[in-house]
Amino acid sequence: MSELAESIWRSDHRPGYFGRRRDAKTAELNAKHGEGRWRLAWVAGAFDFSFEKACTVFYEESYLRQLSAHPLEVDFICSFGECIDNAPTNVESGLDYTKQEAFSTHIQDIAVRNVLRRLGRKFDGPPDSLLVIRGVDSNGHRFGPGNVPFITPGLISQPSLVPAWGNRWSVEDFWQSNKWVQVLK
What we know:
Elements: H1 3-8, E1 9-13, H2 22-33, E2 38-44, E3 47-49, H3 51-68, H4 71-78, E4 82-84, H5 108-118, E5 130-132, H6 171-177, E6 179-184
Parallel strand pairs: 4-5
Antiparallel strand pairs: 1-6, 2-3, 2-6
Helix pairs in contact: 3-5
C-alpha cells in the first residue's frame, strides 16, 4: 500500500464474523463513521489489503495449494455442474469476488472456480448438480474456508477470531482474525 494511503486510514478494530448480519453491520458502521469514511481491510504484517486483493492473494492461494495437493478432490469438485455457497444465484458471480448478490458474502465458491481455471479444469457434471460449499450438512462442507488450511498461518493475527464452525489456522481464521475496520484519520 502506498505511503499516502497508509497516512489516510487508521485501523480501528477487528469486527470478526459478519455472516447474515453483513448489511446490518454495514449500516451500523455507516451510522458510526459516515458512509465512505470507513472500510474493511485485511492486515498482514505491515500491509493492508482490499477485499478483492485479499481474496486473490490469501483465499485463492490457500485453495490452490490445498486442491493442487489433492487431485482426487479436484476430480470430485469437477463431477458437479457448478458450485455455490449460500444461494443458487452465486453462480452469477463467476470469477469475480466483487459480485456479491446474496444475503451474506460468499468467497469460497468464487475461489474454487478461479482455482479450477488456474488448474486447467472445469465443472464436467450435469448442469443442475450443485456442489454446496457450506455447513456440515452440505455436500461440499470439506471445501469450506473453515476447513481449508491457510497458506501462511504465521500471518494470522492473534488472538484468533475464527468462528466456532471454523478451524484454527484455516482460511476462515485468517479472514476473520485479520479483518479490520479502518477509518479515515
